[in-house]
Amino acid sequence: MREEPHRVAGVRRGIPLELSVDGEVIQAYEGETIAAALTATGRKVLRHAPRTGATRGVFCGIGACFECLVTVEGMGQVRSCMVAVRPGMRVSLGGQTGPEEGRP
Amino acid sequence: MRETDVAVVGGGPAGIAAALAASRAGARVTLVDEYSRPGGQIYRQLPTAFQLDRPGIVDRDHPRARRLLQRLAGSPVVLLAETLVWGVEDGTTLLLYREGGEAEALRARAIVVATGAYDRPVAFPGWTLPGVMTAGGAQAMLKGQRVLPGRRVLVAGAGPLLLPLAAALVEAGAEVVAVAEATTRLQWGLQAHRMWGHWERVRDAFIYERALLAARVPRYFGHVIVRAEGSEAVERATIAEVDGEWRPKPGTEVSFDVDLLCVGYGFLSSMELPRLLGCRLSFHPAQHQYLPVHDSTMETTVPGVFVAGETAGIGGAEKALAEGEMAGLAAAVRAGLSPGPDWEGEVRAARSRRRHQLSFARLLDELFSPRPGLYQLADDATPLCRCEEVTVGEIRQAIREGAASTAALKGWTRVGMGPCQGRICGNLIGHLVARETGRSLKDVLDLNPRPPIKPLPLEALARLEGAPSPER
User: Fold this and answer.
1) Is the ipTM of this complex over 0.90?
2) Which of A45, A60, A76 lies at the smallest CB-CB distance from B134?
């Protein structure tokens, strides 16, 4: 089995599946959240804040802060810590926050 | 429109205990939970697709959680998972939304709010960098996903939850470079006698301490986080020794190369629903927050609306279970049910368990209540409102120009108007306004949530009759 330094032993995960992140295919497991699957690949930067372009990533981890927003094809912007991966899911990172792009 | 006798919001220990108690009393109960599986944070379950092979330190609550969750699964309680309560119509109707679905209303004769808490936000230079996480967030990823959010970790904060997190990180294979606790060993020692009778807590602490000792994790007492640095994500974190008011002492800084910084200075209760429902709140000085006023059955000042668990004040899972039982039984009575002949005995027993837990909660409040220095770590360039990227300097400027409360600042600077609705920044801004204007926190914490309390797509509202239109 391939070495997966961020995935901890002691559990059997769900069936392996693939999703695409900005066009790159990554492996995840049924039951994982998008945030966990991204973290497991070592990705920490999930987006850039709209005003300053500062990098942002998973912060509260429990759905309260909305820092971990990613764009999922067909779903729009979701909190990656709250939404489970699905086979073939297409995720894009680096997007702007909130429904108010283009505000002054 | 769905209807139920008792609606319980939040699927943690308090909510589950409330739902089971109300159901036992004969009520039709609907339990609404935002997560895919019930359990809340402390009883967080693995995804259904996962199977646990070897329970570890991170699973210490597993047996208790499993018993409670099995009782829930075997009960007639209707569970609405992955469902957000985003607003209320009046004291009896909750507005729901399920991801990808449509908004709908749930009318109840009584409501139990058990929406829990989240990590108390603390702002310092670098706190918005990826790789800086709340202690609860890191714990959730370990406990619920078995994914390690970093390999070299500094844990900084105050209170009993740093130890299980650090122990879980070590167990998962991370190198914990240090645990920085704001209080001192001496302060702990002076309160040690108050642990008498709380043997389960003593045993837990012993297990975590032993794990950290075995892994030779360096411990810093009387130290707080002062800054995080890195280009794209955190690379370096710095702590410093503090005085009795948690103000860093010059020349005492210690820096660590890390790829994860976990910050946990206690919790804030989720107050959105009690506020929306119009419950009267009172200020809790040690917890630095407003909490719902309630009577001995956990009923708030709004008839038929109850609170239980962390929503009623920070105090842990055992307090939450006791309060859930009290609230659930009383809510069933409010809904017109007549519980079994022994229900008053059950309430008395739960009340006594609650009292026992409250004595421990008071100890934690006194020992770990944040001191003023914690709210002075951020400099003028530090964003305080993460959503709208409003800095301390910009907020201070607005205060000088006349914005004198958190609510006034909202219009002035957009703080609290982003998707988190002030959950993260509201309390911090209150502290800043209080310091800048010389007023007390109690008088400036007035940021009110507006529906929807968490964002939802407009099209979800299309077919909801009579719902208030969402404001921005």
Assistant:
1) yes
2) A60
